Records
---
Amino acid sequence: MTDRAAPPVAFRLVLAAVAAVALVVAVLAGLARLGWSVGTVRAVASHGPLFALGFLGTVISLERAVAMSRRWVWLVPTASAAGVVALLMEIPSPVPAVFSLAAATGLIIVFVVAYRYQPELHLLVMGTGAVCWLLAAAGLVFEVPRPGWVPAMAGFLVLTIVGERLELSRLVGVGAGARALLLAGVTLVGGGAAVGLIESPAGARLAGAGLLVCAGWLGTNDVARRTIRIPGVTRYMAVALLIGYLWLAAAGVLWGATGLNPGQLSYDAAIHALFLGFVISMVFAHAPVIVPALTGVSLPYNRAFWAPLALLHVSLGVRITGDLAGWIDGRMWGGLFNAFAIALFAATAVTSAVVARIREPAPRTKARVAAEPAETRI
Amino acid sequence: MTTPITITESVYEALGTVIDPEIGLPITDLGLVADVTVDGSTVGVDLVPTTPVCPLGEYLAGVVRQRLSALPGIEHVTVSINRMDKWTPERLSAHARDVLGIMR
């Protein structure tokens, strides 16, 4: 089927802007939670859902909409973005979470459709991630106490990324043993997401075991181990990915050991090893490719991208050391520099895009040509 | 004067400069180019994504369109992303296999 009815680039930019606002508010809410004075921040209580479901749910579903290029798929990021707007406008619960639930349902349908065309394991893994999004949103709709829905939020992001990496790992081949290990990890993460809604510590421990297995699988099978030899943006991406896998393993250990107890400092360490160390490192890795694909804005790689990546991981190390050692200053300053790392990355990206535009002022016709969506047949 | 044969050659040459940033190899080596048609000054390129849910195809299509539009003798470029066609590792070139360290 040919579908050339993709929405205009301006619509993509609006959705991307809503996702960016969700990230900014989530980061400010995180700083407020750490004890920094950042003025009046809305949605402090929704710091986690705003980051994992609002920001990343919108971005991930936007990626699928761009890839599939079918008009109905655009309802998914639109619903997710509507949930962000509802939350920021302080529309009472459960309305924002219901939008997120609708988006998750839509994303599951996307994977069912994709699987019909290509019945591949990586689509099943990513689809399981979408089911985890549904579970997390359901937990919010039915007001399951925190952190019951946290393993489901983690499952959404981890399984989405694991599925994407599995897909690329087909380049170098994945053996039967590696597939079995991967399926064990996915089952544990998915099982932890479901169990967590009923019995939070047990779900967190189960998911923690799954995170550890997934980290082991990624660390040994990911194509990034080979592409790290290729200089430039390819090496930058590979390094960001491989460091992220170390944090994923650390998160697995912390989740398994603590069962995620929000009353302890180790909770902050367990959560942010995953959502900053692993997830944000993945975002930093893929931004030079994904931003142009989603927005049509060229974002050429340059060596400056290494600075926010290094700052993120060093400051996260300080924060988590502070959490685990009861060193409150280290926790607070580490957290502040985590936010600076994200801000520095955003500034580097904007500068890169502007400098590229100045150095190579493309003729208007060429610019239109580059932004024009490709024809899609599916 | 630019002949059809030289246009076809220059199209393939230009496609070989489009790099998949994540893998660091040209899309021609990765087997992402399924078909190229040259009809006068009109060029059509069919790309095959490695999966139907990856947005990278859109990024690569943009780069392909830019590179080909800059070639002399080409006035119109159409890039299609064909998700009906399934990518398999057999599409990798010998060069890609060498760089990725895949046993043949």
---
Amino acid sequence: MNRALTASLPGSADARHIRWRRLVDRGFQALALAVLLATLAALAALIADVWRDGAGRLSWDFVTSFPSRRASQAGIWHALTGSIFVLVLTAAIAVPIGVAAAIYLEEYGSRSRSARLIEINITNLAAVPSVIYGLLGLSLFVRMLALGRSVLAGAATLALLVLPIVILSTREALRAVPKSVREGSYALGATKWQTIWHQVLPVAFPGILTGLILALSRAIGETAPLITIGAVTFVTFAPDSIWSPFTVLPIQVFNWVSRPQPEFQANAAAGILVLLALLLTMNAAAIWLRDRYRRKDAA
Amino acid sequence: MNVHGDLGALVGRSKVQRVEFVIEWALFLCALLSVGTTIGIIAVLAVETAAFLREVSVLEFLFGTEWTPLFAAPKFGVLPLVTGTALVSLIAMAVALPMGLLSAVYLSEYADPRVRRFVKPVLEVLAGIPTVVYGYFALLFVTPVLQELIPDLAGFNALGPGIVMGIMILPLVSSLSEDAMRGVPRGLREGSYALGATKMQTSLRVIVPAAFSGITAAFILAVSRAIGETMIVAIAAGQQPRLTWDPTVPIETMTTYIVQVSLGDTPQGTLEYRTIFAVGMLLFLGTFGLNVISAWLRERYREEYA
């Protein structure tokens, strides 16, 4: 008898086999979904835990106060200003250099051997542990260039750290610019740089900006490299120049979480909430830009 | 029109062409800075490590079983730090690999596009959370919960931070593996379905093997991330270098040691100061090796389905 016919008969061995295979498939799908949900649950648990521990400490006073030996009076003003100062300076260093490097790799040297080498090198740099950048910063910026444990040394270290990310994301944004934009410009007699400056960069701008924000949101959460270059953990003033000693929000959180008293750990949780709020704002800005860009593209 | 790297372009050309030439070189120098960074890292680590190895023999450093550089009678055997790092990384990978791969299979083969659109950004958020936050979570949430299950678990241990590190790395594994699976040509999928295979059979026996080098690349990169991860272990794993595979007791990783010494006021040029560079060198070589293998595998994968 024809096998294809028996397979369709209910109750036959083949039909049972098919049912069994469907069941296994369903089970596997459920397992995979469960794993995904577990991951999301972990994120929810993390945020709920931090919120439960820290929400009670959040207040305007907490944001505007300096550190103190008494947990209930301690605040994050010095760390928050330190973080923002370092971030702005990091951007000032990393953005022009990173965008320039990306333009070179994407628009000029994409086929040359040196460009290929630089590319491989950048991919590797992006995966070097951040604490290693701290060792580089300590030796190069703090000691050799004698910048001391200053805002400038911290920003320079973080700039090197985010540079690969800036370059990779900028290249992607440049790659998304249609060839016709460049060709149209050349056809009108523009030089290469004129084409890049007046045509390619404006089109790629939202994409570049999105990548920059994401790269900088990496910088604002970094702790290890700044501890390694010797950012101090107890400062009682906000940094007022690029030569000031400084601390940043993640280091302040680390300092508080390392203390045994629950009051300080509550401060750490509140500090984390401020840090996450800052990050969320940056990410939201990046996503908003990306969406706006896409819609314009579609129009 | 072509002014590529031609020094002659500076002479006897129009102003526009000279500007073009200067700009290209300026851009090139910016790109070259990344090579400078690599050279800087290697040079800094090499110089200090060489100075360290003049006072401590390579054999003692690599194979010694005691790490007490801050004691009066210092011992410089790095093995306890290496095993500490390996232990936490192993636990992290035991979490991140199966879960990351299953998430990737689900997102790539099963999920509704609407689910993907929701889940992918959430995973991105997970990947973007600062590691100091994960450290807090490991020390003050995961470890206490685990202590309910394992009463002997110390307050600082390898297990809690290992699991949390796994959660932190999971998005990386998941998104890179998913990219690799989605890169598998449709034809392979359709051929498998045409032969009567279920989705699970297709995923596990066709898609995963076809994307194997891409997935392996993701795994290796994840291992490299785990080894280099600092704040989670610095906060939650303790600062006691000990040669053990017991995940319930305090240990110390290579990264934690660097942070621990950096927090103190270490005078430059002392042996103690140099230890962090020697440990850093080991860390760099380990992660760099893994990154190179990972990049090579990714490249191979790209060629397979180009």
---
Amino acid sequence: MARKLPKKDVVIVGLGWTGSIMAHELTDEGLDVIAIERGPWRDSPTDFPTNYMQDELRYRIRHELFLRPDQTTFTFRNKMDQTALPIRSWGAFMPPNGVGGGGVHWNAETWRFAPSDFVLKTHLTERYGASFLPDDMTIQDWGITYDELEPHYDQFEYLCGTSGTAGNLNGQIQDGGNPFEGPRSRPYPTPAQKQGYGHTLWAKAAAELGYKPFPQPSGNLSRAYTNPLGLRMGPCTYCGFCEWFGCGNYSKASPQTTILPVLIRKSNFVVRDNSEVTRINTDRSGKRATGVTFVDTSGEEWEQPADLVILSAYSMFNVQLLLLSKIGQPYDPAANTGVVGRNFTHQATSSVDGFFDSSKFNFNPFIASGAIGMCIDEFNGDNFDHGPLGFVGGGYLGQVQTNGRPIETTPVPSGTPKWGPQWKTAVRDNYLSSLKGGSIHASFYSYRDVYLDLDPAYKDRLGRPLMRMTIDFHDNEIKAANYLTDKYAEIVKAMGAHQVDKKPRKGPYDITTYQTTHLNGGAIMGADPKTSVTNRYLQSWDVSNLFVLGASAFPQNAGYNPTGTVAALAYWSAAAIRGQYLKNPGPLVHA
Amino acid sequence: MTIRRRDLLATSALFVLSTASAHALEIFGQLPWSPNAGNPPTPVKPGPWVYFTGAEGRAMEAIADRIIPPDPQTPGGKDAGCAVFLDRQLAGPYGHRDGLYVRPPFQPGAKNQGSQSEAGPAQQYRMALAALDRACKAKYADKEFAALSDADKDTVLKGLESGDLKLDGIDGKAFFEQAIKDIQMGFFADPIYGGNRDMVAWKMIGYPGARYNYLDWIDRHNERFPLPPVSMTGRAEWTPKG
């Protein structure tokens, strides 16, 4: 029997970016807030020290900062008629764990989605006609517009001190920025990061081909910055240990560097770490959450009652908690009914490696940051005419190489043996004069047969069913991957590479090779409770004192990294709670 | 007090997380901080095999030297310490799959569903190295793998790679794929883990190692970085001899 703790105004499940943002906003409102975090407390000087964080084996290969699969994992299959098997060791993505969540070990690529991404179904239908979309594609509008979200993108960027070059200031296109971006109300808080040789050369070649390259928006800061909470960050030192690693230099925007030192000092905030929420409790009507139940490290169960429940775990764990708590109707792909688990997506990344004459080119690939790089946006979203191409969606193309860490980043030209003297020579001759993994960061739209549900066979350490992922690429994503990869390869060729290795994403979806950790959907937002789990304020349609934050709200994925949008949505939701909900608790939208 | 270990922990443990030091804490009031609270890595100590038997160690060093053969400029996998690296890894969390999901049922699946093996790397290496020596003895006049000529070793390894040479009781092709990965990993990992001895791999490619500040170098395009590599524990020259 769970022991009952004293009631709080708010319980927050998971203290990553969205949990930290929401905790800060609601404690400012005077509410008494507790955050319950599955992983450990972590902080920069103790957990990411600059004297041993540069350890590729420990952090990149052995996943030190990530959730351990023995705590919980997922099962995976491509098709509904297959048996899903457990992911025993992480591959295609790396779920975060611990205070700070993915904000600790992200690359800090801080993008906004395009205005058309939020009204995707309407936009594509108007431009190309409904019959242009594949029959089983289930994309939909978000129920919110870019303009509504803009102040909250701005809020997050100023929290982080994001470094970048504006491309569209209040409708005026700016030189050097992304001319395709939605209008922003003010410039980035800090100027763009400096770029290495490879990034610069790529941008020059892209410009010569007629594109408009711009620096990737970066949460690794170009200069010292004091954020609106009074927290100070230092300039990034381009150490090349960013993604998978925590930053001990206070240069990467994270909850640790931008929120937690202020939040933890508030008398109305507490965090309980190493404690896993196992369900959201509801009253007899099932329409009202009464709090959560969690398990501590000794295995004891506790009940934390609260008036307001904020679900801010990693996207798929949000969906899992909804299913285990029996909140919302589970999605059934055969009958095409229900919503929880529906419109699950990931990313469709492709890449191109370029090999150059080592007597003329020296890229020093180890000098980099997580969000360094130059990009073009000509082939993202609907910035180009898809009519003749027979697919929808796209992505940014970028020379965004983040590191020269040698276990991972010792590329050899295709055709080189995997071992032996030729391999050794090729590694030696190409390390400094190759560019690896040029990024094609493409969208993954939603489909009727790509979804999440509870696995019938495999259980976690607490005996709960694992989440089952049923996911595969569809022709649309494969066509896009081939098209975008060809475009990228032209740029690398124009840079002067003597060998260009194209690596377009191929099916079937593979759980063993890393793409991104951008898994989205499953608890999507929208205008209609028949096709969404939450309303436009991320408030559960079924339980009005439950808000579900994070990328689980994305109806489909766009061709950008998600964190900017995830955080902006958290601010948007917080503003609705502060401005509307608390005055009159209940549904903010009447269906 | 800003951290309370409350009475939550008083009852008997029903399970233990993989991090032994993890206890549920309530944190409030100020950032918890104590001096030297970090968790630095433990350097591998030289010395005898920890996991491998003598025969396994010989075989693994011989394999390492074919995956990464010595050349006049750079030692091979054996002298770079790659087998020592692997030995210590197999003796540790990697070998025993600490933290991984090892619950049954174990059923075969598609390759893109990831390894579903019931045996962990430590057990797989043990089985594969024994099977490899048996296969070599059967084919090469009772010689174990380490005793073969370089040409014969390469023939055997190419057979594993293509799948033409089968090992009894274990997938030889998957074993060799893993061995390539692990040996090359040892070559490039920080020398504190036992491989990349004297940072030979980093010197070979021009990687300057565990540095964390290139602010002065981000603008210096197409110039060779001049400083030699440094490990997490510094450089041999920094440590007085004797």
